[in-house]
């Protein structure tokens, strides 16, 4: 089968004023050792614009109380703002209903929620779970824990040398035991954009539900969960201009209703006696305890901020950054790019001949450049390419072409040290 | 501090031309060290004769800081007694962690080029891994990890995607 994913065609628009956008991010004015910060680690965590910071401050200074509890003014305001944030996130991913949007602490917890809520109820001995070589550890380890507990089996979709999933192999992994598919939308280590819509359709034709790890996609492209028809979609707030400690699990309502709760506690119940507890309806069934209210409201503000700029404009600018950086890095002798998928998000993993990624990271840091070095919580990917680690520059819409030039000069300087 | 000073010529030289690099036939002591954070792996073999390290060799895949530290370490402990080596291990660890009393009498000599790692918490483990591995070898522990639970160096670093 051939990929039918929509191609993100870069159309450089004059309307995208990166300097105006950068002015929204106070942290980008920092100097590191006297050098302007060049922040190229947004795949690990993105920076927060002033409107989101202001929203957090406004909530904390004028609106805070516990939600879904008291009848007093502040509790009503906080509840309304919290539920309003849920609706903002619903619109951000085009979910059918707001009760399909569950606040979690992040992508990792969202995936663990599905493992406990769905996996432990519906996956048993001899069943098979399909994952891919590209997965982040957070979409591997929970399923391994489940497989060990239940006697289930994990099957892994391989990749080619470019870092693209082998779809034929994916299809061949299906059999009567296949009960679940977990796949990331965009690879954090390589940037590959996976043909998830096609993969979802294939799984659904066999009655198999699909979870998408969207941590690296949500900040960079328009997500439409209805169009994708995914059963679950997980992503984190801090990678999309929001706070840490908050994330989203989208799930189809009928699936969420059939699932068992993940954590027990307050807010997730309708009534409690020592004889029997009746669980609340979704989404509260999965939101035990007092949630990070401020973070949820901040995430709502982040979704508003990104939407105001426009996810298409963001994707276009980032694609231009990726193309330019790829072109420049290819000109450097001794530097090779790891991950050359035809469809890529703005992630550039690279290795420099004769220089360990950690040394590159430290030497770039001297020049104010923040990149990630290591295995990127994706050790199977590193094993596939037979390398211990890479350096990774990951771009966001607030990065400029000039910063790409700084990165290239930084790599050259590091090479000189080791020449 | 300026991290530039970490990549001094002596460190770069030992990285380019590591001393005592390779395998040792008939080693009496041996250990493997891992840094799971960066995938670094270091193997140290030594021969202890009459409580003296009369031969030592290392090999493995690692960053420049780790490799240079291993190279300079093997040169420093070769010919020393086990007890002298243990003192150096302690002094090196204290230096890397910024705990070495500046006024104290120590035996580190040129190894002080690594003092700068104390300001780079993510790189301390790179410099210390060979020393941990040497200690493990001297105590005939066959495999150690910088992430071991009882490791005083244990400190979560990174982990975000």
Description:
The complex is a heterodimer of chains A (419) and B (161). Chain A is an alpha/beta fold. Chain A folds into two domains: 18-39 and 310-417, Aspartate Aminotransferase, domain 1 (Alpha-Beta Complex); 52-308, Type I PLP-dependent aspartate aminotransferase-like (Major domain) (Aspartate Aminotransferase, domain 2). Chain A is built from 14 helices and 17 strands. In chain A, strands 4-10-9-8-7-5-6 form a seven-stranded mixed beta sheet, sandwiched between helices. In chain A, strand 1 and strand 2 (35-36) form a beta hairpin. The longest helix of chain A is centred in the first third of the chain and has 21 residues, at 73-93. Chain B is built from four helices and four strands; from the N terminus they run H-E-E-E-H-H-H-E. Helix content of chain B is 34%, strand content 19%. Chain B is globular. Chain B has helices at residues 9-16, 64-77, 82-96, 121-138, and strands spanning 29-35, 40-49, 52-61, 143-145. With 161 residues, chain B is of the alpha+beta class. Chain B has a single domain, classed as Sufe protein. Chain: A, CATH 3.90.1010.10. In chain B, helix 1 (9-16) crosses helix 2 (64-77) and helix 3 packs antiparallel against helix 4. Classes of the chains: A alpha/beta (419), B alpha+beta (161). The A-B interface holds A 33, 43-45, 136, 138, 188-189, 215-216, 355-359, 362-363, 365-366, 372-378, 382, 388-389, 417-418 and B 2-4, 6-7, 12, 15, 37-41, 61-65, 120, 122-123, 126, 158-161.
